[in-house]
Amino acid sequence: MNFKKLALGLCMLTGCCVAASAQQKHPHRNILWFDATANFKRFTVKDSITYYLERSKEAGVTDVVVDVKPITGEVLYPSKIAPVMKEWKGEYQSGVKDLSWDMLTVFLQEGHRLGLKVHASTNVFVAGHNHFDRGVVYSDASKTNWQTISYLPGTGFTKITGQKNKYSAMLNPANRDVQQYELSILKELVKMYPQLDGIILDRVRYDALSTDFSDYSRKAFEKYLGKKISRWPEDILSYTGGDKPEKVKGPLFNQWIEWRAKVIHDFVYEARGVIKKVNPKIVFGDYTGSWYPTYYELGVNWASKDYDPSKEFSWATPGYKKYAYAEALDLFTTGNYYFEVTKAEKNKIDTSRVNRTEAAQTRAAEDWYTVEGSADLVNRLTGGKIPVYAGLYVEQYKGHPEQFIKAMKMCREKSDGAMVFDIVHIINYGWWEELKEGLKN
Q1: Cα–Cα distance, 198 to 389 (Å, whole number)
Q2: What sections of the sequence does the record tag as coiled-coil (predicted)?
């Protein structure tokens, strides 16, 4: 009996070979994220960096992601382009006057000593923190006009810095000056740190469906259409009246969605080219949310080009699939940010009380609003073309360590590994043993 043929036949019948082949094809990683501002003081001390990297290694972490460009647009390394963050909430870098070392260099040296892969993360289309009126769009007059413009009910065209209910002062992704500035930072970072194992982009997106309605975007969209827009912005988006205004889609809405996806698609591919030109071996990665059915609101099509969303969703044009960018990535980590782990737990979701604060999330009770369901969705839409690492937001499991462990195991079962955000919660909750349990084979 030919056991190889028999095994292959069983595999094809059951579909189990899909996950197995993906695990063999793509590198397995257990990724732990190190947020810049949440850990600012902790990780500007050399001994602290070493200590927490050692604890991470002991827990089964294989890769660490060091946030070096938080939402303020400042950076945590000696850049000649972006302002350097030397203080956060009254806490100061211990070594700001000693230029013989910097945080990222120590992360690289100590991480590599321990056998860890070290990636740098940058928040791209954002340059200010609205809760502190701090950041590049606040401090640099030449960049104030880069901030995104929202079209909102009641207030109309509104700058993002005037929306204090939002903490991220997002930029206009279509603005070429913005793009070139962000690309220059990425290029500088990769040049400065040739030892980096990877770059992972974050916030490569629009702020919301209500953005960007600046004059710049209007002209760019009209160029894409090849005609003038007679009713701006009503031909794209307007609102009903009353105490609870609802969005009304105009005749150009779907083309607007397609164009925004093209903006992000083109930038991702350009960023890959810039980075790979400096270091061809570096891993080029991206983070997005996993909730694809509503993620179009952010101008992002993270699927494979082989997937055609127009066959499933009314907001997608037949041309929308052209602006998918999964194939541009060497690493893709997604936010599977839900308390419910299995699809069966969907029935436990209280849609009246569920707390979903990530951009473009809704209160719906769907399979893809569980860790398992969202991981399955990501796998289907990326088609096994790229390594996928399902991610968790630790704070969602506060007081429920058993659910956190269960979620980590699901991420590892359903993808090429797990991404855990953020180490600050592991430290605060004392969940090192829980982390180790969730990551062990």
Answers
A1: 14
A2: none
Going by C-beta distance under 8 Å and a sequence separation of 6 or more, which residues neighbour residue 214?
A: 148, 149, 172, 175
In a domain, residue 165? The reply is no
pLDDT at 94: 62
> What pLDDT digit, counting tens, does each position of 376-421 carry?
999 999 999 999 999 999 999 999 999 999 999 999 999 999 999 9
Q: What is the pLDDT of residue 98?
A: 55
Residue 300 belongs to what domain range?
32-128+176-205+257-439
Of 111, 114, 162, the residue nearest 137 (C-alpha): 162
Residue 408 domain-assigned (yes or no): yes
Report yes or no on 170 lying in a domain: no
> How many Å apart are CA 422 and CA 345, to the nearest integer?
24
The residues facing 171 across adjacent strands are: 147
Alpha-carbon dihedral angle through residues 93, 99, 101, 103, given to the nearest 10 degrees: 40
Question: What percentage of residues in the chain have a pLDDT greater than 90?
Answer: 89
Q: What is the CATH number of the domain that holds 352?
A: 3.20.20.80
Query: And the tokens for 178?
Result: 């913005």
List all residues 6 or more positions away from 54 whose beta carbon is below 8 Å from its beta carbon.
114
Beta-bridged to residue 64, according to DSSP, are: 32, 118
Q: Is the pLDDT at 18 greater than 50, yes or no?
A: no
| Confidence grade of residue 3 (pLDDT, cut at 50, 70, 90) | very low
Residue type, 315: W
Handedness of CA 295, 304, 173, 216 (dihedral sign): negative
242 three-state secondary structure: coil
Kindly state the greatest CA–CA separation across the chain: 76
Among 36, 30, 29, 31, residue whose Cα is nearest residue 424: 36
- Report yes or no on whether pTM surpasses 0.85: yes
Q: Is residue 10 part of a domain?
A: no
Long-range contacts at 141-149 (CB < 8 A, ≥ 24 apart): 143/181, 146/171, 146/172, 146/175, 146/177, 146/178, 146/181, 147/171, 147/172, 148/172, 148/206, 148/207, 148/211, 148/212, 148/214, 149/211, 149/212, 149/213, 149/214, 149/217
**3-state SS class at 121:** strand
Conformational region of residue 439, where left means phi above 0, alpha means psi within -120 to 50, and beta covers everything else: alpha
Sign of CA dihedral 18, 19, 23, 28: positive
What domain count does the chain have?
1
Q: Reduce the DSSP state of residue 118 to 3 states and report it.
A: strand
Nearest to 394 by CA among 330, 342, 333, 438: 438
